[in-house]
Design goal:
By secondary structure, the chain is of the alpha/beta class. The chain folds into two domains: 4-227, 3-Layer(aba) Sandwich (Rossmann fold), CATH 3.40.50; 240-320, Rhodanese-like domain (Oxidized Rhodanese, domain 1). The chain has eleven helices and 13 strands. It has helices at 5-8, 14-22, 35-45, 78-89, 107-112, 124-137, 163-166, 177-180, 184-203, 275-278, 299-309; strands spanning 25-29, 49-53, 94-98, 116-119, 141-147, 150-156, 212-217, 222-227, 240-241, 252-255, 271-272, 291-295, 316-320. An eight-stranded mixed beta sheet has the order 3-2-1-4-5-6-7-8, sandwiched between helices. Strand 7 and strand 8 form a beta hairpin. The longest helix is centred in the middle third of the chain and has 20 residues, at 184-203. Pfam families: ThiF (PF00899). One of its GO terms (cellular component) is cytoplasm.
């Protein structure tokens, strides 16, 4: 018997659908909680090549929500541990790994070689970077996030509106899984939906995952969904993320991190100040100059950029240091 008989018997799959799955290359950014069910189910389904990108190592505190790993793998790079597990799950699947972060310098190459891109990093900076790159290259993006007992997953780009069309602005909520907590089964539910939407995209299902949003509230056990096929792309110039290598002395560079947080500024000529100091309106770039705002996650930089946009319509770029430095 073929190991894929139980899915090939489905009218939506069949032999031709299984061939599409087996010939596909899926890029998975992040190898944590969301990626645990994503990688296991995509590997089990027989996806031809899985490309996994993550700089972190397996820690004991990961295991309650990342059952892809076990105690014997603690201390290993997550991508290496994932490859060990996935090779045992399905030796037919090629697993390629990159122990690095996604950043503006490598995003285009990674995305260009993929049939579907999965955003499992749970980082707004990464989500916007992936959306911008996938929109440019017309690649489908399945993005998800979980916090506490709630989460969502959506299918963006390619034939659907981008992540920016649905989320034109970063929420002001600064909570993370580390500060607000998260339960493993909630992450598993969202991750499993993400895997299903990836497979549905490969199979070109009649109810396309692209343009679809699914929201889960496991506090009340409520699920909802809506389509956003007609969502409009932002009309104003968006804030985009760049790498340090693209900085020049002509830029107005503001490092919003304190010296206690980052002793070395993002660039030798960078000005140091807090968001409040920057937002007093006294720092206006010269005509034709680019304003570059840097912080760790991108949230402070985004908020400062939003304030600057109120009185200046020039070029604004952001740097999220967490997306450039292996954690």
């Amino acid at each position: 018997m073929n190991r894929y008989d139980r899915q090939q018997v489905l009218q939506q799959v069949g032999k031709s659908g299984q061939a599409r799955i087996s010939n596909a290359k899926i890029l998975v950014i992040g190898a944590g909680g969301l990626a645990s069910p994503v990688l296991q189910y995509l590997c089990g389904a027989g996806v031809g090549t899985l490309v996994v990108v993550d700089p972190d190592v397996v820690e004991l505190t990961n295991l309650h929500r990342q059952p892809l790993y076990n105690e014997s793998l603690v201390g290993l790079k997550k991508v290496d541990a994932a490859k060990i597990v996935l090779n045992k799950l399905n030796s037919e699947v090629e697993v390629l790994t990159h122990a690095t972060t996604l950043h503006p310098d490598n995003a285009r190459l990674l995305v260009s070689n993929a049939d579907v891109v999965l955003d499992c990093a749970d980082s707004y900076a990464v989500s916007y970077m992936l959306s911008d790159t996938c929109s440019l290259l017309e690649k489908p993006l399945i993005s998800a996030t979980v916090l506490g007992l709630k989460g969502y997953v959506g299918g963006f780009c390619a034939s659907a509106p981008s992540f920016r069309a649905v989320f034109p602005d970063i929420p002001n909520n600064t909570a993370t899984c580390a500060t607000a907590g998260v339960l493993g089964p909630v992450v598993a539910i969202i991750g499993a939906l993400q895997a299903q939407m990836a497979i549905g995209t490969l199979l070109h299902l009649s109810s396309s995952p692209l343009g679809q949003m699914v929201i889960a509230d496991l506090d009340t056990y409520a699920f909802s969904s809506f389509r956003f096929d007609n969502a409009e792309e932002p009309k104003s110039a968006p804030f985009y993320f760049i790498s340090i290598s693209s900085l020049t002395s002509k830029d107005l560079i503001i490092d919003l991190r304190g010296k206690d947080e980052a002793p070395t500024p993002v660039y030798p000529d960078a000005l140091r100040m807090s968001v409040d100091e920057f937002c007093d309106g006294s720092f206006i770039p010269e005509s034709g100059q680019r304003a570059v705002l840097a912080c760790r996650s991108g949230l402070r930089a985004w908020n400062a950029a939003r304030n600057l946009r109120n009185y200046w319509d020039g070029d604004i770029a952001l740097i999220a240091m967490a997306s450039l430095e292996a954690r």
